[in-house]
Design the sequence.
């Protein structure tokens, strides 16, 4: 019997297990879906039902553990950022830093990437060009456009912001 058929037979048990370890039914459904996708993509999944069953349960458990870990890291990050934000509020230079960060997050991913490479990580134009596989001139124009967009957002003159106010 194929792995797909074995998975179909195991679905009720997989769902029951996923629901039992999840806080919400939707999270359990996501765990089962992710585990099934992994099993179907695996190069050499167990072929027999006897071997596949614990393998699938372990996959669901590992996915659940990974998700809990991600949530914990996000909570800790948010808590730290909130604490830092409240500690720094009231200082003009810190408020400016926060507004720059917030403006940076509104940029397109392409603009964030180029500013990160050049302005944050300090790569040279040639190095950044190799990283993103574009000509040096393209890097220079992207940096220019991204810096301009960032300045406009920080100053509140961005066209998106003008239409809001």
Sequence:
């Amino acid at each position: 019997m194929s792995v797909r058929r074995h998975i179909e037979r195991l679905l009720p048990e997989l769902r029951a297990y996923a629901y039992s370890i999840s806080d919400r039914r939707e999270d359990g459904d996501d765990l089962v879906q992710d585990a099934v996708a992994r099993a179907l993509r695996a190069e050499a999944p167990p072929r027999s039902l006897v071997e596949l069953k614990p393998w699938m349960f372990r996959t669901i458990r590992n996915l659940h553990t990974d998700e809990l870990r991600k949530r914990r890291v996000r909570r800790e990050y948010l808590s730290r950022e909130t604490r830092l934000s409240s500690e720094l509020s009231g200082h003009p230079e810190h408020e400016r830093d926060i507004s720059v960060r917030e403006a940076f997050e509104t940029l397109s991913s392409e603009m964030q990437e180029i500013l990160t490479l050049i302005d944050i990580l300090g790569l040279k134009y040639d190095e950044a060009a190799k990283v993103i596989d574009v000509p040096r001139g393209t890097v220079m124009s992207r940096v220019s456009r991204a810096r301009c967009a960032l300045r406009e957002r920080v100053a509140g003159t961005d066209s998106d912001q003008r239409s809001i106010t």
